[in-house]
Amino acid sequence: MASPSPRSSSFATTSRTPLRPSKVTIDDSCQTEADNTQEQEKQKRKLSQKQKTLVTKLRKNLAEEYLRYLSERDARKILIADLNELRYQREDMSLAQSPGVWGEDPVKLTLALKMTRQDLARTQMELNTMKANFGDVVPRRDFEMQEKTNKDLQEQLDSLRDDYEEVRKEHEILLQLHMSTVKERDQFYSELQEIQRTSTPRPNWTKCESVVAGGPDRWHMLAEGKNSDQLVDVLLEEIGEMLLQEKDFFPGLGYGESVPPFLRVDGVVENKKPTKKDVVNLLKDAWKERLAEEQKEKFSDFFFSFLERRFGPADAMAWAYTVFENIKLFHSNEIMSQFYAVLMEKMSESVYVKHKETISQLLKEMTNADSQNEGLLTMEQFSTVLRSIFPFKKEEKIQELMEAAGWQLSSNADWLSYQSLFTEDEEGQVTPFMRMLWEQYVEEKDEYLQELKQDLGLELYEKVTLPKVREALMTIDPSLDKQTLNSYLSQAFQLPLTELPEESEEKEEDIMIKLQTVLERLQMIDIRRRGPREQEPTS
C-alpha cells in the first residue's frame, strides 16, 4: 500500500497560494484508495460465497450420484439373485426327472439345496442389515478428497480474513495519518499566514559593500558562508571598529566590585588605537607566556602583569582598556572571543588548551597519513583521520567537517591540501574547517549538558544533590573514569577535590545547589563525552 507523502514537501513553502487544492487532492486520493479497498474486499467476499455455494452444490450432487449408484447396485444384485433362483429351479427339475444323471442321492442334494438356501437367506439378511446400517456411509477416498477440499477452502477463508483484517488496520492507520496530515497542514498554513503578516523583507546585504572599508572584495570575504544573524554581527563589528578608532580616550570604570581588577581606574584612559592585527598578535604572545608559566596566577592578574612587562606600568592600564574594548567587540574573531571568555571567567583556560591540543593532534595524524609528504590526502584518508580523532562524532558531523574542508559529495577532486585547513590570516580569521571544529565542540557540549538535565528530570530552579549529579553523569556517559568524574563534580559544586565526599558517604546528600548553577559551572569547563551512552557488549 502506498505510504503518505512526506509532510514537509507540501507545506514548507513561502508561496501565498492557498492550500485548499492540495487538501482536495489529498482527500480525493485517500477516498479513492478507501473505495478501491472496499471494492477489493467486496470482490473477495463474493468469491468466498461463490466457493461455498459451489462446495454445497458439489456435495448435493455427490450424494445424489451415490444414492443412484446404491439403487443400481441393489437392483443388479436382485436380478442376479433372481437369475440364480431360476437356475437353481431348473437344476432341481433336471435332477427330479433324471436322478442318476449326477450320480448323487436326490435326498442328499435336496438337503444341500435347503441348507444353501438357508445360508442365502441369512446372507441376504446380513446384506440388508449392512445396507441399512451403512447406506449413508461415504467411501474413505471420497471422504478424504472432500476433507482436503474443505481444508483448502478453510485455509483460503482464513487467509482472506487475515488480509481483510490487515487492510482494515492499514485503512485505520491511513485515516489517522490523513487526520494528522490535515491538522499539520492547517497548522503550517496558519504559521505561514502569521509569518507572511509579521515578517519583514529579506535585507539586501549588497548595500553594505559601499559602506564597509575595503569595498566589495572585503565584504564578500567577510560575508562568505555566514547567515543573516552572523552578517549582522559582522556589520556591527565593522561599525564598532570605526567608532572605536574615532575614540581618543576611554572613561575609567572606577573601583567597584563588579569592575574587573585590570580595569579599575578613575578618570580617562588613552585609546592606543592598534590595528586588529596588532591585537591578535598581542593575544597570541599572551597565550604563549601563559602556557609557559609554571606557577599559574589568576588569568586576569596574569593579563595585567603581561601588559606591564610588555608596555611598562605607565601604559599598562591604557593597553588593558584598549585590548578589552577590542576583544569585547569582535565576536566573530575566534582568538579574540575565546580570550575574552577566559578573561571574564565565562570559560576555563582548559577549554582553549584542549582545543589547541586537538587541532595539533589532528594535524599530526594527517601528516602521518601523508606517506608521500606532499601535503595531500585522499578523501578516504581524510575521513579515516577524522573518525580516529573523533570516534564519538555522528556521521553527519563528520560530513559537515568534510564539507567545511571543501569536500562536497558531488566533488570530483581526488586530493585535498590538508595543511591549508590549519592556517589563519593576519587578523586571526581561521578557515571554515577550523570554525566548524569549534562550533561542533560548543554544540556537542550543549547536547551533553542537555542530556544531563533530561536524565535528572528537574527544572532549572530546583535543587539537585551531589549523588544525583554523579549518578546522572555515569548514566549518560558510562565510560567516565573516576578522576574525570570527580573533576566535573568539583567544578559543579565548587568543592576542592580533597574535600569531595566519596560515593555512598552520608554527607553527600547534604550537598545541593540549583540545577541551573550546576549547568552554568559545567558549561565553563572542558566537558565532553568519553564514550558511547550504552556500553557495547564485548564479542
Notes on the structure:
This protein has 539 residues and is an all-alpha fold. The protein is built from 16 helices and six strands. It folds into four domains: 20-186; 247-346, no CATH class; 350-422, Recoverin, domain 1; 444-524. The chain has helices at 8-11, 20-97, 106-134, 140-198, 215-223, 228-246, 276-292, 299-329, 334-343, 349-369, 379-389, 395-404, 432-456, 466-476, 482-493, 515-524; strands spanning 249-251, 268-270, 376-377, 416-417, 463-465, 512-514. Helix 13 (432-456) packs antiparallel against helix 16 (515-524). The longest helix is centred in the N-terminal third of the chain and has 78 residues, at 20-97. The chain is elongated. The chain starts with 7 loop residues before the first helix and ends in a 15-residue tail after the last helix. Residues 1-19 have low confidence and may be disordered. This is Translin-associated factor X-interacting protein 1 isoform X5. Residues 1-17, 28-37 have a biased composition (Polar residues). Keywords: Coiled coil. It comes from Phyllostomus discolor.
Which SSEs are present, and which pair or pack?
Elements: H1 8-11, H2 20-97, H3 106-134, H4 140-198, H5 215-223, H6 228-246, E1 249-251, E2 268-270, H7 276-292, H8 299-329, H9 334-343, H10 349-369, E3 376-377, H11 379-389, H12 395-404, E4 416-417, H13 432-456, E5 463-465, H14 466-476, H15 482-493, E6 512-514, H16 515-524
Antiparallel strand pairs: 1-2, 3-4, 5-6
Helix pairs in contact: 2-4, 7-8, 8-9, 10-11, 12-13, 13-14, 13-16, 15-16
